[in-house]
Amino acid sequence: MSPSDRAAAPMSRWISAFLEAQAAERDAATNTRLAYGRDLVDFSGWLAHRGKDFATVSRSDVENYLIGCDAAGLSPATRARRLSAIRQLYRFAYDEGWRTDNPAIQIRGPGKARRLPQTLSLADVEALLAAAKASDKDRLRNNCLMELLYATGMRVSELVELPVAAARGDPRMLLVRGKGGKERLVPLSAPARMALVAWLVARDQAEDLARLAGKAQSRFLFPAREAGGHLSRQRFYLLIKQWALAGGINPAIVTPHTLRHAFATHLLAGGADLRVIQTLLGHADISTTEIYTHVLDERLTELVMQHHPLARD
Question: Is 307 an annotated catalytic residue?
Fold first, then answer.
């Protein structure tokens, strides 16, 4: 099929070809591809309603679409992501010879407000750990999940998708596969190693019983009867909300990612080097990690304003 024929293909073909290239050439994560797909399907629906398609889009069309997104109340972050998806689609189309231009390349996206990440105090984290450890059901698994999350600062997707092979042999460090397939080593604390050893014993016993019943063995550290074969991010999200309630913490401020932020800010407060934290978190750019210095500055300012005698009203 010639470039001109492909350019005339339905918009769904453009999207599927683009997403396939993202997976094959850029090793884009599944969640990233799903987000791109949703954004581009929304854009294609908007175009179809106006009798247009990807091959005939102009810069003004893209701008009008973004104006419509703003009018619909979409956040600046969502609008910026949609513009990014459109830009990348047309960069791909240009490389493939389907378009001779990129109609979105010169459009300036909405400014992103600098929002400091929500974090937790050490007392809050200890309360969450205690609540998970005291669970009536799946206590060993829950304790292991929480200890690993706080000890390593892993993303929740990295945690629930850990292969059991990575945890064999009482490791001092875990090999984690992060965004874009990049791998990194994260050290384990003594409590995390103890929780891991205890969970592996219980997990392997359950897997042995499943094998005797004719069921397939799981390759994941946290197996579950869910679509991916492992504990889902959504299920863990609900679990951590339950532990927050049990620990007397407002569940609105607690998510798996909040623990990642707590890991980073607590390390920084303890004197850890910013480059080390960047490596442990798997950040590609140090500027992403630097936001934790602002969190710490804000906390120190708050402490001074609360406790310094001359700061009191």
Answer: no
Domain 3-96 and domain 122-307, same fold? Reply is no
From the candidates 193, 260, 261, 266, give the one annotated as an active-site residue: 260
Identify whether 261 is a catalytic site residue: no
Catalytic residue among 179, 184, 235, 241: 179
From 59, 233, 235, 283, the catalytic residue: 283
The superfamily in CATH containing domain 122-307 is: Intergrase catalytic core (1.10.443.10)
Is 257 marked active-site?
yes
| 283 labelled catalytic | yes
Per-residue pLDDT of the chain (313 residues; tens, 9 = 90+): 444 445 556 899 999 999 998 887 777 778 888 999 999 999 999 999 999 999 999 999 999 999 899 889 888 888 889 999 999 999 999 998 899 999 988 888 776 555 556 788 899 999 999 999 998 889 999 999 999 999 999 999 999 999 999 999 889 999 998 887 889 999 999 999 999 999 999 999 999 998 898 888 899 999 998 878 999 999 999 999 999 999 999 999 999 989 999 998 888 888 888 888 888 888 887 877 777 776 665 555 555 456 556 555 5
Question: In terms of C-beta distances under 8 Å and separation of at least 24 residues, what long-range contacts does 131-139 make, across chains too?
Answer: 131/242, 131/243, 131/244, 131/246, 131/247, 132/239, 132/243, 134/246, 135/243
Its pTM stands at 0.64
Known catalytic membership, residue 275: no
What class, spelled out in words, does domain 3-96 have in CATH?
A: mainly alpha
Give residue limits of the domains in the chain: 3-96, 122-307
Q: Which amino acid is at 249?
A: I
Is residue 179 flagged as an active site residue?
A: yes
Catalytic hit among 82, 99, 141, 155 = 155
Location of structure tokens 């954004």: 39
